[in-house]
Sequence to fold (734 residues):
Amino acid sequence: MEHPPYLVAQELESLLGDPEDPGTAFSHARSLELDENEEFPADICRLLEGWGLQEFYIPVEYGGRLTDYETVMQVMRVVARRDLTVAVGHGKTYLGGVCVWISGTAEQARGLAADIRGGVPVSLALTERAHGSDLLAGDVRGEADSGGGWRVSGEKWLINNATRGSLLSVLTRTAEDGGPRGFTVLLVDKRRLAEGDDYRCLDKIRTHGIRGADISGIAFDAAPVPADAAVGGAGGGVETVLKALQLTRTMCASLSLGAADHALTIALDFAERRELFGRRLIDLPQARHVLASAAADVLVGEALATVAARSVHNVPDELSVVAAATKYLVPTGTEGVIADLTRLLGARAFLKDVHALGMFQKVDRDHRIVGLFDGNTLVNLNSLVNQFRSLSRGWLRGSGDTGGAVRAFDVAEPLPPLDPARLSLVARRGSGVMATLPDSVAALRAEAAGRPELKGALDAAERLLAVTGRVHEAMDAYRTVVTDVPPAAFDVARQYSLCLAGAACLGLWTHNHRAADAGRTGALWRDGVWLWPALDRLLVRLGEPDAGDPDAYLPLLERLRAARETGELFSLFPFSLHRAVGRPTEDPGATAHGAAHRHTGEPGDATAGAASGRNTRAPGDAAPQSGPSDNSAPRTGASDATATPSHAPGDTRVAARTPGGDGVTTRASGGDGAATRTPGDTRAATHAPGDAGAVTRAPTGDGGSRTVGDAVPHAHTDTRAAVGGTRTSEGTSC
Fold:
């Protein structure tokens, strides 16, 4: 089965060449050089513009190639897989223009399209130094002038491309009292202003990740802006921005998917070549569990992002739900994948110029900011909490646009053009994607009646359906919450997002598995090879007891290894990556023995490991009975699961080791002094960079746990921004 959006992505991948070849313009070596120098990737951006990447930021009705958002997502995923800095730095032009595509006049849209086509950078200026995501507190003001326009004054800060961009969509307070109808989006053209008099650019902010990106700011001093610069009319700025954020949040998934692709590949290459205690890392049970779980999490993110991108066209009036869930779940899921793979890599997760040139540490640093774009985790969970009333009612009634959801699931269904007028701030009838879950489970139940190989996936689906019912019951307690959202409500919203992802996975599989049974997709879609582990991982992250079935993961791990060996993207819809098939990644710590045991099976041959002498799986050689929990919950130990010894029976050389192999030891007891980290800090807390002798501890409950990612808040949560009677906290940090 070939899926058109991925064919376009394949076109770009082929043009860019082999990223592991330092002579390639868009190589990993070049990206690392730019990162080290904190230099904007201008030469790589010019290469992408030569192909016409900017055309994908322009709707087709204005002469561009933006026909559907699924294609844009996969094209940007290609860029992000190579370098997130490039994807963020260049892709910001789409974010800068989206307000015009939603609410602008035809004249504004045509003018902006011509500029973007000509390579003019565009920026979205929302946040301010003192107010962050609280858009209704913005102080940048537009005072009416005698010509019907405005004189704009004030400072926008932490704005991507504020200095390099020539055009900025600026959220401006145009009424003294502000409020939902007191702001206007003004399309400000710096080329018509006098630098130094009308405006000045603020210095670039040095950042931990995406070091080369232009994260800076701009200060206006009574800058003259004409009346025709108002996008969506005076006073419509907040509504325009909130609708635009539904699209940009969905597209942010491409950044996380690309980062996850890259991190997973780096870790897999290391595991295939690294020898530890006389065995390759890939043959140790815990390493296999980490890789297989990460692979399942990547596919969960891809499935949800695919449904979200297609919902832009098919279910725009419910996009407020799926976009918020996607923006929460895909970045935090990728943060979890990177954290788990960090423990697998050990010191090589931090070292430069060793394994994979040190790209893993760059991927880790760069991706941490994605969760802050277009509304951080709490903003997106809060957006879901504010819709609990309609969502829980819709679940009970089975309402929502189920027809549109089914069209979003069926990738053979042509996508209609986006109708911006259908975008809504609230999904008033509930979620059609969620409402399809019972039917999807019933369809899988019927399919599994004569196919025992689907029993595992069906059991997981039945459990997910039961959990989803309980989550909707829990939502009822918070149906009237508007402000001062309690921490428990955020946790329910997190669970809702996981259930929605499960509905997306089941909907995709139900409506595509027969067509996907042929061609490159066959081995992954056949017999629920990806569906079972994906659903199982969601159950683990939902905290369900006895989830983490080891039998779910072995076929998926074999598909991951086969894809890497044959040079394909590990994906629901794989295509060829531009690399030398089977070429090892340089690593002085890898052994010749490890290289000699690389997988040599044919594509689709899940038993090739046995033929090549590779240890496939003995009893117990798989995942522990419970796996890593979702990032919002406490995560403990090296595996976030049970401390299962990874040595062979009778091997007394080590009690238990983490897969990283650089002398990092996991203790089965203890817990005093174990490292902890604060919410939102996705850095591995096991050891400092280069500390190959650091110690981590397995779960003990006595201080050995650590909180990862997006823990729910335990203090007052500011939910001031109010629109149309629904109070939300919205915005973006960059």
Q: What stands out?
A: The CA atoms of residues 197 and 470 lie 60 Å apart. Residues 237-273 form the longest helix (37 residues).
